[in-house]
Amino acid sequence: MTMLDNERLSGQNRLIDDFGAYFESIGFQPIAGRIIGLLSVSDREELSFDEIINRLKISKGSASVVLRRLVSECRVAVVESGRRHYYRLNQQNLFELLDEFERMCDSVRYLLNTTIDLKTDKESSNAKYFNQIINTIDRYKTSMATMRQAVQTI
Amino acid sequence: MTMLDNERLSGQNRLIDDFGAYFESIGFQPIAGRIIGLLSVSDREELSFDEIINRLKISKGSASVVLRRLVSECRVAVVESGRRHYYRLNQQNLFELLDEFERMCDSVRYLLNTTIDLKTDKESSNAKYFNQIINTIDRYKTSMATMRQAVQTI
DNA sequence: TATTTAGTTTAATCGCGATTGAACTAAAAA
DNA sequence: TTTTTAGTTCAATCGCGATTAAACTAAATA
């Protein structure tokens, strides 16, 4: 039950676009997502600048800019060899996704808390609702801290 | 220790812009976030179309479009009275934030899973890393299901 | 019925980020 | 030293979503 090379290739291309779409949805440039996708799906896990622009059919300019950003954000690592640069996915903290979500929860918590502070009537319908959400967020964070420990001690 | 009216008003205005920025960061139009902010912070929790456009200094056109979207997404509820429309925040499911995050986790899980499927070498460094992330996501979901029940049975 | 009012629709504009192309730089190769 | 190559920089463009203004509709009011 082996996969044909052309199946694999077209599967990869589709997936690279899916990566692009997903990363675009969380605020990246489409090209950034496609590069991450390529570095994720390709069998050789370290690719040169040239390989990247040829496979994705993007200009040197955008590749240069986007790769610099990805490297500065520690999503991609670069290795220089001769005058070539090779790129590979940087395997970050497993909880990166969760970290980002927790930061989002913190923003919401701050907004709702400040909102309640500004309310004349702390018992208003919205004030009560916001308090419930804050409560849920706090429970969530406790719950997550526990889970992180569990995962880390395996 | 009471807050002056003008303090409250300027605090509200600042917070409304913070809501705008936050909602913009998660993919809404800035105006959508500011409307949600206004409906959240204002003491009267039900405001007319006119009150909204006057307080936020936005055009009837954008207010109309954005409010229609917010209503269709059930973020805002509308009450018609005479020929006026009144809007209030729709108090959604407490877990809305978490629901959205879980959908995001599902997308990532799908991308990584499909990526592994396409790999020739399932033991490659990236394949192993992706498997760890998938594992963490699965643990996260279990953990969340438990927490939701705990919150709901209080 | 005529008028006023609340909100909708839509064409036009504005601003901005993503992308490209081409000139440019620095370093390796010849 | 000259040439080639890899990648960078940056001005120009492209496309698109957000916003507005103004014409328009429908319903309430006079």
What does this structure look like?
The structure is a homodimer of 154-residue chains. The first copy, chain A, has 6 helices and 3 strands, in the order ααβααββαα. In chain A, helix 1 runs antiparallel to helix 2 and helix 5 runs antiparallel to helix 6 (125-152). With 154 residues, the first copy, chain A, is mostly helical. Helices cover 68% and strands 9% of the residues of chain A. Chain A has helices at residues 5-25, 30-41, 49-56, 60-72, 96-118, 125-152, and strands at residues 47-48, 76-81, 84-89. In chain A, strands 1-3-2 form a 3-stranded antiparallel sheet. The radius of gyration of chain A is 22 Å and the shape is elongated. Chain A starts with a helix and ends with a helix. At the A-B interface, helix 1, helix 2, helix 5 and helix 6 of A face helix 1, helix 2, helix 5 and helix 6 of B. The structure holds a DNA duplex (30 and 30 nucleotides).
Describe, in short, the structure shown.
Chain A has six helices and three strands, in the order ααβααββαα. The interface between A and B is large, with 55 and 55 residues.
- Quote the average pLDDT of chain A: 95
Element-by-element helix/strand order of chain A: HHEHHEEHH
Sequence of strands across the biggest β-sheet of chain A: 1-3-2
Biggest beta sheet summary of chain A? 3 strands, antiparallel
Protein chain pair with the most extensive contact, residues per chain? A-B, 55 and 55 residues
* β-strand number of chain A: 3
The oligomeric state of the chains shown is homodimer
Unreliable residue runs of chain A = none
Put simply, the count of helices of chain A is 6
| Alpha-carbon distance between the two ends of chain A | 34 Å
Main structural class of chain A: mainly alpha
Helix content of chain A: 55-70%
Radius of gyration of chain A: 22 Å
